[in-house]
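Blinded run. Sample ID left blank on purpose so nobody reads anything into the name before looking at the predicted structure. Input follows.
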Amino acid sequence: MIKRFMKMCAFILVLCMGIGFQTGEVKAYSLIQNGLYRLQIVDSHMYLGLPHNDIYGGAPLVLWKYARDGSQEWHVKYVGNGAYTIGKIGSNAVLELSKYNNYELSLGYYKGYERQRWLIKRNYNGTYSFLNARFNMALDLNENKRYNGNRFQGYPPNGTRAQQFVLIRLE
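Blinded prediction complete.
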């Protein structure tokens, strides 16, 4: 009887949270606290990074093994309406998605554009996925290949492990 009650409570909690990709729409709320994070691709010891911490040089956003140079540290900030910015600490540069160049990710000065805002979804396995507020594209590891230097891209949400991240809070 207790197990049945606990299962029912868990089911109701999930329904009440209203989190998830449903029929192409995202219901998102402030799921995580503002702060400094590493975005680790699930099932790896590799992270979303910026080579040489090159904030203004147009470097691509890539997967890389653990580095201690700050290149994998991201400030995640809630900006309202279920959206967050993902920025480099100590700068006004945030992750943005451009539909030009096949939905390539880059850093740009924050100006409040929808392409600079990300909806965050908590997945069934405790990981998180990021969906661009402007283009409805997920933050995705190209072909889910796990090697240093593989690029991240915008890709239609599909729930695969290429779009699942572990958020590691640093502060």
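Unblinding after everyone has recorded impressions. Confidence is low (pLDDT under 50) at residues 9-28.
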